[in-house]
Specification:
alpha+beta, Rossmann fold, 2 domains, seven-stranded antiparallel beta sheet, globular, amidophosphoribosyltransferase activity, iron-sulfur cluster binding, Amidophosphoribosyltransferase
């Protein structure tokens, strides 16, 4: 995944771009980049590998090495960007967010024109942002080019373009699966994935782009190039996990949604579980914590932090490339509060259960430190499909998903014809899946948020939410 930030001001924007992009560090850890434009110098760009480091460390040189009144910055888990492009549309810098599932098909189609080439990466891969730029450059304007790219891409595409005439063009993907928000101050305009990033820099909310909307702004003007489309399908996973607590999408704050979400799960449990036997409720840090707080408040069971993540050493930016190393890091992060674990019946809320690898490690860790029993709740429904739009719950193989593996163990491929039953914890198949996971992970009980509960906690219509990874509804 990833996030981006941009600003056009009456004065130098380096500080805004530095902090604004840095405030998106929770969304990705692979690479980051910044591009700025100055009338005398022109376009300037810096890109860095972010493995085992932070945005601030890699880009602190910007304050003395770059200047400009317009700029963009991004941090992502895909390919290095922003890229600097020279085309018939002019010179510009571009960064993108989203997922292109038909990249190879589009590359072959462009190469067949015999007048296009791509810079090949290791293994012959093509930078997806370069592919997007190539698609945009086929049209006579940025607006037409972005719309064309969004139409031919299977997946999703948000775009930021820094032009060579002191303007920034921002486009939200055509179904609005990701947020793109505009801020305004007496200095100029800004754009971001996370709106708290520009609020910390003195901007106020000006507007949230609608699905497929394209705007262009300078230091003193904002122009709509393409009006928003009617169909909205924003990713519901944003609120349960990826979104930062202080951010708001479509008028719904992330932290507030998580409290509501936990409270709804507690109400569901009151009907099906004797909570009198639970000593403490806790969240799997960090994003599971507010869900757990909402659960504890609604269930009248004390909320505690039975273990803490040691982030001074193992920061979010330190994510090893392979699963075995990630498991070790996850284990080393967890520091127990022994007095809150030993001989206690604990109920934990996690933001989601994807592969189940780290969940198993957490459960084993709790029992090793003396827990009497461990109950687990997931703040979203069972994840049954790999995300094809945003890389949110993406797996190379859907059989990596815990739910899929469990269904295969229970009744083989026939079980995949009954996904809806497995999602529902009240059906026989749903109960069997939960019981099997409990058996494998040594859980006293397991339940997932219902689809109805998730939608209610967000507060938007189900028709306006993408729930593909749960029920394949786009």
């Amino acid at each position: 995944m990833g996030g981006f930030f941009g600003a056009a001001c009456i004065d130098d924007v380096i500080e805004d771009i530095f902090y604004g992009a840095d405030y998106h560090s929770h969304l990705a850890t692979k690479s980051a980049g910044v591009a700025v434009y100055d009338k005398e110098i022109g376009l300037q760009r810096n890109i860095h590998n972010m493995k085992n480091t932070s945005f601030r460390i890699k880009f602190e040189h910007l304050f003395k090495d770059a200047k400009g009144n317009t700029g963009i910055g991004c941090i992502n888990d895909t390919d290095p960007q922003p890229l600097l492009i020279r085309s018939s549309l002019g010179q510009y810098a571009i960064c993108t967010l989203g997922q292109i599932n038909n990249a190879e098909e589009l590359i072959k189609d462009r190469l067949s024109l015999n007048c296009v080439h791509f810079d090949a990466m290791t293994g012959g891969r093509v930078n997806t942002t370069e592919l997007v730029a190539t698609l945009i450059n086929q049209k006579e304007s940025f607006k037409e080019g972005i719309e064309y790219a969004q139409d031919v891409i299977d997946g999703s595409l948000c775009v930021l373009i820094l032009t060579d005439h002191d303007s920034i063009i921002a486009a939200r993907d055509k179904f609005g699966r990701l947020p793109v928000l505009i801020g305004k101050s007496d200095r100029g305009y800004s754009v971001a994935f996370e709106n708290f990033s520009y609020k910390k820099l003195g901007y106020e909310d000006e507007k949230e782009l609608g699905p497929g909307e394209i705007v262009e702004f300078t230091k003193d003007s904002l122009t709509v190039l393409a009006k928003a489309k009617e169909k909205l399908s924003i990713c519901s996973f944003l609120w349960t996990y990826y979104g930062y607590p202080t951010s708001t999408y479509e008028g719904v704050n992330v932290e507030v949604m998580r409290y509501k979400n936990g409270a709804i799960m507690a109400q569901n449990d009151k009907e099906n579980l004797d909570l009198n036997g639970i000593d403490f409720v806790g969240g799997v840090p960090d994003s599971g914590t507010p869900h757990a707080m909402g659960y504890a408040h609604a269930s009248n069971v004390q909320f505690v932090r039975a273990f803490i993540k040691y982030t001074p050493t193992w920061s979010r930016s330190f994510i090893p490339p392979n699963q075995s190393e990630r498991n070790v890091v996850a284990k080393m992060k967890q520091i127990p509060v022994y007095d809150l674990i030993k001989n206690k019946n604990l109920l934990f809320v996690d933001d989601s259960i994807v592969r189940g690898t780290q969940l198993k490690g957490t459960v084993d860790f709790l029992y090793t430190n003396g827990a009497k029993s461990v109950h687990m709740r997931s703040a979203c429904p069972p994840i049954m499909y790999s995300c094809k739009f945003l890389n949110f719950s993406r797996s190379n193989n859907e059989m990596e998903l815990l739910t899929r593996r469990t269904i295969m163990d229970l009744e083989g491929e026939e079980g995949f014809n009954h996904i809806a039953e497995y999602i529902d914890g009240k059906t026989e198949r749903g109960k069997r899946m939960r019981d099997k996971i409990c058996e494998n992970l040594h859980l006293a009980s397991l339940e997932f948020q219902t689809m109805e509960g998730l939608v209610k906690s967000i507060g938007l219509s189900k028709e306006n939410l993408c729930t593909y990874c749960f029920d394949k509804k786009e």
